[in-house]
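Researcher: Good morning. I'm working through a list of sequences from a screen, and I'd like to move beyond sequence-only analysis. For each chain I'm collecting a predicted structure so we can compare shapes side by side. This is the next one on the list. No need for commentary yet; just the structure.
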Amino acid sequence: MEQFNHVTIIKKANTYFDGKVTSRTVLFEDGTKKTLGIMLPGDYEFSTDLKEEMEILAGYLEYKLQGEDWKVIDGSGVFYVPADEKFQLKVQSVVDYCCSYISE
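Model: Good morning. Structure tokens for this chain:
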């Protein structure tokens, strides 16, 4: 999906790791939520409440889910993080991403 229609965007940024990771929240009419953001190079660890779909739109990073080996996305790709888990990122270049929150 190249663009989102009929959405509400929260103006205030979500800022993490001293501003090295930022995003904006996008709310959809059906109640779903996504964030659109940028990650600068660095090593990060995040935790989830809901299942997350991490869609990498551009950039180079390595990611590690609990109990798995490191994997690479160079350019674009998608990975899923289960609810209530932590995951690690090694961001090697500026990464453009879209995170979708999935309630099951």
